[in-house]
């Protein structure tokens, strides 16, 4: 019986088989993206049972599998065609024979190992980026990486490239390289948190991203699916609008998604939350950042409204479309759809989950993806572009992606130029890599230069090679090949002919190498604008390198110093110096060697002896003279000629022995040079020019017999370098003494066109470079424990080189130097005063307002009414730097707000539509008066366009006072005043809806209980009768007061009256009597009459006063109200320490700490007692106050107007305080 129940239990549940069900519940069964990948599965079960029972167990397994899959299809409604072919077989252990070939063929499946490993790796997603600390942070192999140590600041503009090369996608790097020529499509999933983004992406593409009802994705995760047509890269993004992310971090993720994707699935829960504006705002945030580039903004956006019943589909879609149309109308041409989604927009009402239509709808998305053009022509382009975009987001570089691609491509080609020119390849070790098109990976047409072996010819020396030795060694190799295959020099009767053929042979090799390298550069830059300054600079570098190659392989051709053959050394190649010798300031070019001219042979004549009749043996002996000699060939075996020493043996060009007949009687022994013996003195060419001193090293070849003072060498060309800077070509003149011509000024132009290398002189900025600069490793905030690492990103301006060509034989071109002749653009040179990013409009733009993309607010520091506050998760204090905040996101985090700025007009600073004076000292620089200003005025003062959207600007212009009702805080919503910021108080709600607060704000909600319980404790001792301070004329109740209270106490009554008029709140006034206790202030006349009864008399008693205030708080205690005491006196009295501590302690225990404002009113500026009282009361509050909290404080004033202003400040402090950023001074 027990065995039977165990068997039954086993048949009801089998976790090993249930794993298939769990897998298919979470991940797709059939492949939507590639049906060919939906292959039937088979399960082989091996049991340790008797062979006679195996059939019975097989039936049980099949029945069990059929049951769980039927339940799966019924519960999920998923397409499950592959389950129809799911097979199961059961065998015993005895039948398990894995070494048997027949068994293997029957029970195993065959896969290509490499493909199987790739498919296995693609099941594991990798995290590629996160958004933290208000920054976009790319990862390296799924882990955080700090590449700042790799960045060396300079002007090479390689910061984006360096960062991008430090980004790695782990095991997917090898997969992308394996499929490097395949096209790539990117599909991404984004949306609100916990709305099934990963689940939908998995079932569309076939990936295995994890999903959960809770937050389970951080940053960006990547996976891929490989099909025959292309690679589908899937990106799964964390949910937006979460508590863990700031709007700035959300913007980075949204922008990255938009720029890299082909198709974006944006899921939202519009059926639950009808507020679509916040969702639209996420897209709108990135509109003004990256320059509008059709090459990157090609994505199609599919907004998917989750869980829409079929009956509501049309209504929901229409309602959503109307809201979207409204946003487009408000934002105009800057709306996110037009700017960022070139592939179009779809609004899709998605069926409820577990509806059959939920999965059928995926095929519609698949069709849209099929119609999308591939954004990346191959996987290599995808890797490069995606990493570049990530690097640009990291350093807030909003410049054109195309400019980065051009710069990186040209920089890559320039780095490869030496080996490309030298070997005709891109890499020689460890394996040869040919010159290729870096986009298509196709080799450049034309053979690599091979001769006798399989190694490419090295035609250019490395930096550490000795040029002369390199040339002699390599030219010997080429010369031997030429002589072996074409024309041996020994057999050439005319060395001039041989030299000409050999020179042509070398030029053909150089020409072939040059054409291939030029074609390589052209193919790799043809897709970019050819007038781009980087492209032109690359062409210039290419031309310089090719010029060096051509000059290196230009043969000398003068006579060898040991024989009559032509010198086959190069023409004095000197590329690695500035043509100036530091000691003697001379330089050498063209036929100028470090050593003598050399034919690089054995200098012997190898032709047979001319006197053949004298030789009976065969072969005829070789000539004993030097190679290239004149006259007859004569051997050394027999004496055929005189052979005595030439009488001109000390002359240049002498062949040493007499060539006359034996026994000649003319007296003088003369060699075969006859009377053509040269002078041999140094050539007279010696000049000084802009590139240094030049002395020709050759010897004079004028006959020694000819009288001459001017020595001329064998060279017929002008050896002086072209005077254009950086040009190393020789003068085009064929006159060796061109420098000595009769012209007043001789210019040794090479006769070629030159690239101008001067800087652009147009007004404005040619180019703006964003680069990271590590300001500090660690920033320590002013609040203890606030520490964070940040990187400061700065923009630098640069002038580009002129792109004009200097015509032949001219020193300069006509017109100004400019980096681009047609459609030239120069940036405005105005900087944002907060982030120091340059204006992106053209120089001299007609608009009065500048515009930019904005960066970190490096030139700001925090200010605010609270010394300490929390911002972006950091505990900060006034004076902390705003470096980690972007200009265009600081206000977004604050919602409705007011800015703080220094007073522009200290003497006339009044309340206006966009400004309100601050009546207390605010740090930093507390002695400098400051104003509250509106968001609109804040940006107007910068001179830059407001970077926030129209919707946000409209919201920021509204009043920032909040309804104090606790129900709003509990629900997480906020009810703001419906009026504009800095509005005048109103007394009646518009349309009689909502309520007016006691201080004149209009709220569109129910009237809450009064939030503050305010007690005035006023000193009306005899000293208050002093008339040094009087009520303010033209202020309310002035006439009533001057009749009996034209003194200090009258000024106090007036200030209290104005305060009450502003708040109209429940309040008490304590003198030592209580004339006005917990009364409704709808009739302020009662307040006035009550106060006027009390004249100044008697003594000051702080103990009694504070005690009565405590009694009032206790009598009328309300836990929903904040107790505030305003304590005013003009005299000195002992501190009521015991009484005050007792009241503060009592209120704190009740959960309602007391707030005490002490005011010294009179000519004295200091009161130990009043200051101490404020400190005692503040000690009962937490040290790090929240941004919403008030604070106890002491102030002194001897002016009636300032007293009124101070009471206004107290009134204003009863709203929510928010931090502001202030320009550093």
UniProtKB/TrEMBL annotation:
Pfam families according to UniProt: GBP
TM region(s), chain numbering: none
Top-level lineage group: Eukaryota
Ranges where the VWFA domain occurs: 1013-1214
Molecular-function GO term, any one: GTP binding
PANTHER family: URG4-RELATED (PTHR22796), VWFA DOMAIN-CONTAINING PROTEIN (PTHR22796:SF1)
Name of this protein: VWFA domain-containing protein
Species classification: Eukaryota, Fungi, Fungi incertae sedis, Mucoromycota, Glomeromycotina
């Amino acid at each position: 019986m027990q065995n039977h129940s165990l068997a039954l239990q086993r048949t009801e549940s089998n976790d090993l088989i249930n794993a298939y069900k769990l897998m298919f519940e979470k991940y797709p069964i059939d492949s939507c993206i590639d049906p060919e990948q939906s292959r039937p599965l088979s399960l082989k079960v091996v049991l340790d049972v008797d062979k006679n029972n195996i059939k019975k167990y097989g039936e049980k397994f099949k029945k069990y599998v059929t049951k769980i899959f039927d339940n799966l299809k019924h519960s999920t409604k998923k397409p499950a065609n592959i389950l129809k072919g799911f097979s199961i077989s059961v065998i015993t252990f005895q039948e398990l024979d894995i070494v048997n070939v027949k068994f293997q063929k029957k029970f195993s499946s065959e896969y290509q190992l490499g493909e199987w490993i790739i498919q296995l790796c693609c099941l594991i997603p990798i995290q590629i980026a996160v958004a933290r600390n208000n920054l976009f942070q790319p990862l390296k192999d799924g882990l955080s990486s700090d590449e700042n140590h790799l960045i060396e600041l300079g002007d090479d503009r390689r910061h984006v490239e360096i960062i991008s090369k430090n980004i790695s996608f782990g095991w997917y790097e090898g997969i992308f390289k394996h499929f490097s020529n395949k096209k790539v499509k990117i599909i991404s999933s984004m949306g609100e948190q916990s709305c099934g983004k990963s689940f939908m992406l998995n079932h569309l593409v076939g990936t295995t991203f994890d999903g959960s009802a809770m937050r389970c994705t951080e940053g960006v995760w990547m996976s891929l699916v490989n099909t025959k047509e292309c690679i589908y890269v899937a990106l799964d993004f964390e949910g937006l609008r979460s508590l863990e992310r700031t709007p700035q971090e959300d913007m980075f993720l949204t922008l990255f998604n938009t720029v890299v994707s082909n198709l974006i699935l944006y899921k939202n829960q519009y059926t639950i939350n009808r507020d679509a504006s916040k969702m639209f705002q996420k897209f709108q945030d990135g509109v003004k950042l990256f320059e509008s580039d059709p090459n990157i903004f090609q994505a199609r956006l599919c907004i998917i409204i989750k869980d829409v019943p079929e009956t509501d589909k049309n209504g929901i879609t229409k309602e959503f479309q109307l809201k979207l149309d409204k946003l487009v109308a408000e934002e105009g041409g800057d709306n996110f759809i037009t700017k960022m989604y070139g592939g179009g927009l779809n609004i899709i009402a998605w069926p409820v989950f577990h509806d059959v239509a939920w999965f059928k709808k995926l095929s519609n998305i698949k069709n849209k993806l099929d119609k999308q053009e591939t954004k990346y022509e191959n996987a290599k382009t995808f890797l490069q572009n995606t990493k570049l975009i990530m690097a640009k987001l990291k350093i807030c570089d909003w410049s054109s992606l195309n400019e980065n691609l051009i710069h990186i491509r040209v920089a890559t080609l320039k780095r490869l130029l030496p080996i490309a020119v030298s070997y005709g390849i891109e890499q020689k070790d460890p394996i040869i890599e040919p010159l290729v098109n870096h986009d298509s990976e196709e080799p450049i047409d034309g053979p690599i230069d091979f001769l006798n072996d399989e190694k490419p010819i090295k035609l250019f020396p490395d930096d550490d090679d000795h040029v002369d030795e390199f040339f002699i060694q390599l030219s010997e190799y080429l010369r031997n090949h030429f002589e072996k295959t074409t024309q041996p020099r020994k057999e050439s009767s005319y060395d001039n002919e041989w030299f000409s053929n050999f020179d042509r042979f070398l030029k053909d090799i150089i020409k072939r190498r040059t054409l291939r390298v030029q074609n390589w550069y052209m193919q790799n830059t043809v897709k970019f604008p050819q007038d781009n300054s980087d492209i032109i600079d690359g062409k210039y570098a290419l031309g310089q390198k090719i010029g060096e190659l051509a000059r290196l392989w230009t043969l000398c051709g003068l006579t060898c110093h040991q024989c009559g053959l032509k010198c086959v050394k190069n023409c004095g190649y000197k590329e690695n110096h500035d043509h100036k010798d530091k000691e003697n300031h001379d330089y050498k070019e063209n036929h100028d060697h470090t050593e003598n001219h050399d034919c690089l042979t054995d200098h012997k004549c190898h032709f047979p002896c001319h006197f053949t009749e004298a030789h009976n043996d065969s072969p005829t002996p070789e000539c004993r003279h030097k190679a290239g000699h004149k006259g007859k060939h004569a051997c050394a075996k027999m004496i055929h000629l005189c052979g005595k020493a030439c009488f001109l043996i000390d002359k240049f060009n002498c062949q040493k022995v007499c060539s006359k007949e034996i026994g000649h009687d003319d007296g003088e022994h003369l060699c075969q040079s006859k009377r053509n013996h040269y002078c041999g003195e140094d050539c007279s060419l010696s000049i000084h020019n802009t590139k240094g001193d030049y002395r020709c090293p050759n010897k004079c070849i004028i006959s020694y017999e000819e009288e001459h003072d001017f020595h001329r060498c064998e060279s017929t060309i002008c050896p002086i370098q072209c005077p254009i800077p950086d040009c190393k070509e020789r003068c085009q003149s064929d006159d060796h003494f061109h420098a000595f011509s009769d012209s007043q000024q001789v210019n040794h132009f090479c006769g070629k066109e030159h690239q101008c290398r001067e800087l652009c002189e147009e007004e404005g900025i040619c180019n703006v470079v964003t680069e990271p600069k590590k300001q500090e490793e660690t920033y320590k905030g002013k609040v203890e424990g606030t520490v964070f690492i940040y990187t400061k990103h700065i923009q630098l301006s640069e002038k580009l080189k002129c792109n004009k060509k200097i015509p032949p034989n001219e020193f300069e071109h006509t017109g100004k130097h400019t980096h681009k002749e047609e459609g030239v653009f120069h940036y405005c040179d105005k900087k944002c005063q907060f982030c120091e990013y340059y204006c992106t409009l053209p120089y001299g733009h007609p608009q009065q307002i500048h515009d930019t993309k904005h960066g970190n607010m490096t030139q700001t520091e925090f200010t605010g009414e609270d010394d300490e506050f929390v911002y972006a998760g950091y505990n900060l204090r006034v004076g902390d730097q705003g470096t980690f905040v972007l200009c265009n996101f600081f206000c977004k985090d604050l919602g409705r707000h007011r800015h703080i700025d220094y007073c522009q007009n200290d003497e006339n600073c009044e309340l206006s539509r966009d400004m309100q004076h601050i009546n207390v000292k605010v740090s930093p620089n507390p002695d400098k008066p400051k104003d509250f200003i509106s968001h609109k005025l804040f940006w107007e003062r910068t001179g830059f366009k407001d970077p926030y959207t129209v919707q946000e600007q409209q919201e920021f212009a509204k009043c920032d006072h909040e309804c104090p009702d606790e129900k709003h805080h509990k629900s997480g919503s906020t009810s703001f005043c419906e009026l504009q910021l800095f509005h005048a108080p109103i007394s009646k709600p518009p349309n009689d809806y909502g309520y007016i607060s006691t201080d004149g704000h209009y709220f569109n909600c129910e009237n809450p209980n009064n939030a503050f319980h305010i007690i005035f404790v006023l000193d009306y001792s005899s000293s208050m009768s002093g008339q040094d301070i009087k009520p303010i004329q033209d202020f309310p109740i002035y006439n009533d007061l001057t009749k009996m209270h034209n003194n200090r106490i009258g000024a106090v009554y007036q200030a209290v009256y104005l305060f009450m008029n502003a708040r109209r709140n429940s309040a008490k006034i304590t003198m030592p009597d209580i004339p006005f206790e917990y009364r409704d202030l709808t009739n302020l006349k009662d307040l006035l009459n009550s106060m006027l009864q009390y004249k100044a008399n008697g003594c000051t008693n702080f103990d009694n006063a504070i005690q009565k205030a405590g009694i009032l708080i206790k009598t009328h205690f309300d836990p929903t109200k904040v107790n505030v005491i305003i304590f005013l006196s003009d005299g000195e009295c002992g501190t009521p320490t015991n009484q005050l501590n007792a009241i503060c302690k009592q209120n704190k225990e009740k959960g309602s700490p007391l707030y005490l404002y002490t005011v010294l009113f009179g000519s004295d500026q200091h009161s130990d007692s009043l200051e101490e009282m404020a400190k005692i009361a503040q000690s009962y509050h937490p040290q790090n106050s929240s941004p919403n909290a008030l604070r106890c404080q002491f102030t002194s004033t001897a002016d009636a107007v300032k007293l009124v202003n101070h009471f206004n400040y107290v009134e204003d402090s009863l709203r929510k305080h928010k931090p502001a950023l202030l320009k550093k001074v």
